[in-house]
Amino acid sequence: MGVRVQTEDFDVAREIALLRGSDARVGAVASFVGLVRGENDAATVRTLTLEHYPGMTEKALDGIVDEARRRWSIYDAVVIHRVGELAPTDQIVLVAVSSAHRGDAFAACEFIIDYLKTQAPFWKKELTPDGERWVEARASDDEAAARW
Amino acid sequence: MVEIVYLARLRDRFGTAGERVALPGDVADVGALLAWLRSRGGAWSSELAPGRAVRVAVNHDIARSNTPVKTGDEVALFPPVTGG
């Protein structure tokens, strides 16, 4: 299924249907959808602009999915990350993983999003009533990735 | 020549998305490249100061201070990532 970086929105039901296909070995699909929140660090967020580093982004995401395949028994995975200007309630990112049983699907899905947040070259800039500001990395994200 | 790419906040602070530079002979790794850029002063000195969280990638792979840099490489400098 692979990884995609795009400005367009995505349809979660369609992506999960594609991930499953007609593969009767699949007994579980776990998915994560990240959304734009309307408030961050006590400020109203009007827009959230995402940029990335073309070339490195796809390589980093492929590497994270490969690592998940090494660690867990999964059949397939899809990662879609949007870039450009988004608004509160918009979808930002989808991670979905198929496997025979739920344990591998849950773990691989959480691993992929935790690693994506600390390893993949994306950056967020918020527009608030006080102007634009770059979102700072959170220590809690590093701690989440370090668990794996 | 080496292609240097600046991303996100660093691009804003430096006022440029990148540059092609001929490295001085004694600049052979990431640590030396950062020290050389820092010596320009101003935003270069403050944004790349030791202790500031700056990430570096060489040819699209995350690099460390001792990662070699040579002619033809693409070196990217950026703040800690915030996607997802």
Structure, described:
- The complex is a heterodimer of chains A (148) and B (84).
- Chain A has helices spanning 12-20, 56-71, 102-119, 139-146, and strands spanning 2-6, 28-35, 39-40, 43-44, 47-52, 74-82, 84-86, 91-99, 122-128, 131-134.
- By secondary structure, chain A is of the alpha+beta class.
- In chain A, helix 2 packs antiparallel against helix 3 (102-119) and helix 3 crosses helix 4.
- The model of chain B has no long low-confidence stretch (mean pLDDT 96).
- Chain B has a 5-stranded mixed sheet with strand order 2-1-5-3-4.
- Chain B has helices at 9-14, 30-38, 42-47, and strands at 2-6, 18-21, 55-58, 61-62, 74-78.
- By secondary structure, chain B is of the alpha+beta class.
- Chain B starts with a strand and ends in a 6-residue tail after the last strand.
- The A-B interface holds A 34, 50-53, 55-56, 59-60, 81, 92-93, 113, 116-125, 134-137, 141 and B 5, 7-9, 12, 53, 57, 60-62, 76, 78-84.
Short summary:
The complex is a heterodimer of chains A (148) and B (84). Chain A has 148 residues and is an alpha+beta fold. Chain A is 34% helix and 37% strand.
What is the approximate shape of chain B?
globular
- Helical stretch count of chain A? 4
Q: Order of strands across the widest beta sheet of chain B?
A: 2-1-5-3-4
Largest interface: A-B, 28 and 18 residues
Q: How far is it from the N-terminal to the C-terminal residue of chain A, by CA?
A: 23 Å
SS-based class of chain B: alpha+beta
Main sheet properties of chain B: 5 strands, mixed
**Percent in helix of chain A:** 25-40%
Taking all residues together, what is the mean pLDDT of chain A?
A: 96
Largest sheet data of chain A: 4 strands, mixed
Q: Give the low-confidence spans of chain B.
A: none
Overall strand count of chain A:
10
Q: How are helices and strands ordered from N to C of chain B?
A: EHEHHEEE
Beta-strand content estimate of chain A: 35-45%
As a percent range, the share of helical residues of chain B equals 25-40%
